[in-house]
């Protein structure tokens, strides 16, 4: 048995990139926060999707924004090819900051990584999250018919799919030179999401969990999201908001308020 609690059939893949100085953005660092809240961004995104969120949370909570390798401030670093690799990288990044109560939130691909990170921390036997928030992610046992496959779409179709999803600046998709810089990033991230296969033989996660989504998200609707309740011992509920995949744009306040309420219900903050 490895130190992560995985047997030989489920050993980790390639070693993740070493954490860099810019792996974590802390807009308002605190010495002794009541709670640290770690945020994972979506496929093709960066920490900037959460750049204004700190103002929506209590001032004694520290907001910590993870920057995945190959994204944003780490654009020149190697990409993580799988969700497992991303979660193991994140475990190394957050480990020095687990001396305070903490929660984890992730959207889309980031939600997959958030769940895998919570699993990894539980398996290691150290501090575990007071709360897990998963947004717009299929549950671990969703069948292949629920896997949205975009990584191998032809170039025009991929850009059209991204435009329909939202969350990407129009100039990124419309300018050929800019798109050339980011196409590999999107395809690698989408491939990681498509190949996410969490272990199904594990007991439910022993972390209070809430799930969030848009009522008009064509890829991960409320009916599919409700399946998450099977994967936690403490189900806080499914929170559905008006909108599509990026239902929290342009106004994150309703989601942030719900997150604060759910964390407090879970006994954090």
TrEMBL record:
| Gene3D superfamilies membership | alpha/beta hydrolase (3.40.50.1820)
Name this protein carries in UniProt: Surfactin synthase thioesterase subunit
What the entry lists under Pfam families is as follows: Thioesterase
Report the record's Gene Ontology biological process terms. Answer: lipid biosynthetic process
Give the organism, scientific name.
Streptomyces caelestis
All copies of the Thioesterase domain together span 36-250
Matches recorded under InterPro entries: AB_hydrolase_fold, TEII, Thioesterase
Composition skew (Basic and acidic residues), residue ranges: 1-10
Its family remark reads: Belongs to the thioesterase family.
Region spans: Disordered: 1-24
The record's PANTHER family line, in alphabetical order, gives: S-ACYL FATTY ACID SYNTHASE THIOESTERASE, MEDIUM CHAIN, THIOESTERASE
């Amino acid at each position: 048995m490895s130190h992560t609690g995985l047997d030989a059939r489920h050993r980790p893949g390639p070693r993740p990139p070493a954490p860099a100085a810019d792996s974590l953005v802390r807009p308002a660092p605190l010495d002794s926060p009541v709670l640290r809240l770690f945020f994972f961004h979506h496929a093709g995104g960066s920490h900037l999707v959460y750049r204004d969120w700190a103002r929506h949370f209590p001032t004694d909570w520290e907001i910590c924004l993870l920057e995945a390798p190959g994204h944003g401030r780490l654009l020149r670093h190697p990409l993580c090819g799988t969700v497992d690799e991303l979660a193991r990288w994140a475990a190394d990044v957050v480990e020095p900051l687990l001396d305070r109560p903490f929660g984890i939130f992730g959207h889309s691909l980031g939600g997959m990584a958030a769940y895998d990170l919570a699993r990894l921390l539980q398996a290691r036997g150290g501090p575990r999250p007071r709360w897990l928030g998963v947004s717009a992610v299929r549950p671990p046992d969703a069948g292949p018919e629920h896997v949205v496959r975009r990584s191998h779409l032809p170039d025009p179709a991929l850009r059209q799919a991204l435009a329909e999803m939202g969350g990407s600046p129009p100039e990124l998709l419309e300018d050929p030179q800019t798109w050339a810089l980011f196409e590999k990033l999107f395809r690698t991230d989408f491939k990681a999401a498509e190949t996410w296969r969490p272990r199904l033989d594990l007991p439910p996660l022993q972390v209070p969990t809430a799930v969030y989504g848009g009522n008009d998200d064509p890829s991960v609707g409320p009916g599919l999201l409700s399946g998450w309740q099977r994967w936690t011992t403490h189900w806080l509920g499914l929170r559905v908001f008006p909108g599509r995949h990026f239902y929290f744009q342009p106004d994150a306040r309703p989601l942030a308020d719900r997150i604060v309420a759910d964390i407090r219900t879970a006994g954090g903050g």
